[in-house]
Sequence to fold (421 residues):
Amino acid sequence: MKKSFVLDTNVLIHDPEAILQFVDNDVVLPITVIEELDKLKRGNGEIPYSARQALRLIDSLREKGNLAAGVKMQNGGLLRVAIREDMYLGRPSNDNKIISAAVSLANDKACPRPVILVSKDTSVRIKADSLGLVTQDYLKDKTTVFQKYGSVIEGETISNDVRSVRYLKSGDKIFRVYGDNNMELIRRQRSVMSIFPKNIEQECAIDALLAPQINVIALTGRAGTGKTLLAIAAGLHFCTKPAHKGSQEHSKRYEQVMVARPIVPLGNDLGFLPGDVKEKLHPWMQPIYDNLDFIVGTPNDHGEDKDTDYRSADFLIESDIVHIEPLTYIRGRSLPKRFLIIDEAQNLRPLDVKTIITRCGEGTKVVFTGDLEQIDSPFLDAASNGLAHLINKFIREENFCYLNLKHSARSALAERAAELL
Fold:
């Protein structure tokens, strides 16, 4: 039986083409959704971009007929804009107006189809449910495939259901496995920028970060597992060390280490903060600066101080070896020969991840790091965020590696606190 799906604004921000994802069912947009998209469309960030994309798609369908009466979509479904919003909740907020529009449709005897309100806002779903409405999250990008993969395999038979890079421990040896279960022995206890691995997961992560044939990596794990530290160290390894004649590792493979983070905790808008872009970003990017200072301050493999030219994060940034910027500025750019690190990637939407990877030019390696249990975005969860989506879509690609770092390398106290608190 066909259904009528009423979409909340946040669904269209999450996926501007969401109206096309409900096969041949009806899709209803309350007029409040159109008004909210109109308010959100101004600006250069990801949210304004999504709002504009959604409005353009709706407008293209408007040209085919009357949206109030309903317009046929290419998937056989019908798109309709609902004007009527009898208030069924007290305060006339936009959320309440959208809920009320769905209730009005459900109570309309001329609409015999089941009505389902789709929202990524848990409070909207709770309020709508209290009024007897059927509700659901937007399910298109949901995935839990990351729960199945990412661990170092020990003494087990390697399955051939994926082609991405995996790691197998057999006795004292570790093998890199890829494609049709091809195997390569990796070097144990390999350091990067004098940072030595503290566990087998970090050994495998270092190998993946330095392997030229792997150009997309996802490193997940709780705080303190070393995922961001190792990624930055690998980038600096390629961008600061001179090329050694005859070396199998061609240093200077990348022109720059580029580090970006979503600015979710800052409200996705830097404008209200004082100072220039660098000053606005500094508090949110402080963990990156801390990692840089730790790496350049670590003695080299012989216990000696590193080259004094690289003794501070500020020098690396001022000399353009390392570039730090918000993700907002990546759209529209081409990024060739970069070692690109996307930190806190669990706060990205699937659309954001697509935008980032499609910006990568020839010779670029991109590393996504994040904690799938620590999501700050109000409209994302462990199953719908961009990092989980990336793992799901790339798990069968030979140039991709996913590793879940489970052990804290910060301290025994930090690891125990992460387990207990």
The chain has a mean pLDDT of 88. The first strand starts at residue 4 and ends at 7. The CA atoms of residues 344 and 370 lie 5 Å apart. The domain at 4-136 is CATH 3.40.50.1010 (Rossmann fold).
